[in-house]
Amino acid sequence: MSLIPREVFFGNPERIAPRLSPDGERIAWLAPDEGVLNVWVAPANDPSAGRPVTQDRHRGIRQHGWAHNSRHLIYIQDKDGDENWHLYAVDLSTGEERDLTPIDGVAAQIFGSSHKRPNTLLVGINDREAALHDPHLVDLITGERERVLENPGLVGFVADDQLEIRFGATMAPDGSVSFLVPKDGEWAPFVSFPSEDALASGIAGFDDQGRILALDSRNRETSALVVLDDEGNGTVVAGHDRADVEGIAQHPTTRAVQWVAATAERQERVVLDESVLPDLEALNALCDGELEVVSRSHDDRTWIAAHLVDDGSTRYHLWNRDTAQATFLFSARPSLDELELAHMHPVTLKARDGMELVSYLTLPPGEDTDGRPSKPLPMVLLVHGGPWARDRWGYNAEHQWLANRGYAVLSVNFRSSTGLGKTLLNAGNLEWAGSMHDDLIDAVDWAVAEGIADASRVAIMGGSYGGYATLVGLTFTPERFACGVDIVGPSNLETLIETIPPYWAPLRATFDIRVGNIDTEDGRALLRDRSPLHRVDSIVRPLLIGQGANDPRVKQAESDQIVAAMEQRGIPVTYALFPDEGHGFARPVNRFAFYAIAEAFLAKHIGGRTLPLGGFEGASLEVPSGADEFDGLAALLENS
């Protein structure tokens, strides 16, 4: 099996995220222009005629969509990862590009858009008070903004198709979330979701009959799609016994619910509108992977379908419902389809207390016999971020890169992961570095017992919470892992919470209930006890840290302080710092640089294959500590 260049895995896609204009006439997608991701547009029947309509030359655009008028394209962009998102509109009739939120320091949010008001967006802007987003009506034609109301302390809003605010959400100190209705200048209670249900429940909008739709896990293990009555009680429309409803497909204009999706090991779909069943069946037949309908015209006669696989590129088709014909558009990364890639195997493990952990295992192609290798391999335990998120099946660049280098790769939906029911989710409350870490250790034990992993050559790696889990692995269980790779992980839970962005302040209750309450003596003691920074003396295995200097969630200080503590004690550490990045590495050249170091680091300590160190051209990489751990790294940095 040949070594695949890192650029194949971590470079820009060729074309991705196609979106159909509401009138069905044009398609927009993201593709590189002069090496940077921009928005391109073409006639729906001729993608080859595409042209870029934005001119980003630095960071790349990652989120975009059509306005309901089919005239404007919308996208968001921040500055070097600071997550102060500005909202931009491109007028395709004139080519004019406008910053709709041209205010320094704001982090704009879209609260609503509608086919009934196609030239208007409902946008949250935190210019009056950093912690609160006031809803504004923004005119796409003129750029004018009109504040609808001053936010009295709400964490979100739900609007109808007239962009009238129908509900506001608030979070109580006990972690419960309540939805209120505006009434006579005040906010009256409507429905409340207790803390145990709050992360998987909430009002989702309205259907074709004007009924209130919600995701609701009250009195259930998993969240279901429900219709709420006037008292806030829910009648179940559709659900899944093992997984939360995670997607609701509605007709683009009538709002009739057509299907819902849920994912335990693999995605499943519950179809409610039989008229779409032939379309879904025909599209499913085009691919052995998973189907997602990613965009639809207003009349619902034309769809864009994505076919996802675990061992190749996502493929996109234009689907004509009237003729039942699929037209291939493009692949996101066609170069993948010529390569020998690995399969991802869903496996459900059991933790020491019997909790089921849906997990995903990837093995090098030459070592994979029905999900088991011929001999124990070096393994990377790849831990997801959040932690209120989840791993899922499909193409994963890190899994494929590591498998190509000869590693088994295991990702675990440990307790606190979302989407798999509230028992698993809530079992992680106050268990950072506790039973959440036990789940990871139990997964490693399983892999060793199954003959998958060589117990002496297991690395732990992850970003955000996964970075924290890496630091926990090397401090709380210092002999268990051969090495660790931490990407933007917090080292001190006290300083993490004390420096959360201002607009997260109304959500502090989530941290109080699920991580620890910094305002109480017992809570602060727990946070201190669960912070890797205070256990630095325990580190005996090699550590690589990657950090973005502009990260608003996990500040640079989180990495700086643990690096300083290790240096003071003479404990080796390699620290890769990127001055123009935030919570992760958005620029491809920075990804190439970090993963080159990570590849050399893993090969040195658990013995996988590696390409030569390099690929630093154009990267902002600085290595304040540990460059001498790698032969030639200092010289490469000087010449890049």
The chain-level mean pLDDT equals: 96
Number of strands: 36
Annotated CATH architecture of the domain at 342-463 = 3-Layer(aba) Sandwich
Provide the helix percentage. Answer: 10-25%
Radius of gyration: 24 Å
CATH topology of the domain at 342-463: Rossmann fold
Structural class: alpha+beta
Report the top-level CATH class of the domain at 342-463: Alpha Beta
Major beta-sheet overview: 9 strands, mixed
What is the tally of helical segments? 13
How much of the sequence is in beta strands?
25-35%
What's the CATH H-level superfamily name of the domain at 342-463? Alpha/Beta hydrolase fold, catalytic domain
Strand order of the largest sheet: 28-29-31-30-32-33-34-35-36
Head-to-tail CA distance between termini: 30 Å
**Overall geometric form:** globular
Regions with little confidence, pLDDT below 50 for 5+ residues: none
Provide a descriptive summary of the structure in words.
Helix content is 18%, strand content 34%. The chain has 640 residues and is an alpha+beta fold. The chain has a domain at 342-463: 3-Layer(aba) Sandwich (Rossmann fold), CATH 3.40.50.1820. The protein has a nine-stranded mixed sheet, with helices on both faces. A four-stranded antiparallel sheet has the order 1-2-3-4, with no helix packed on it.
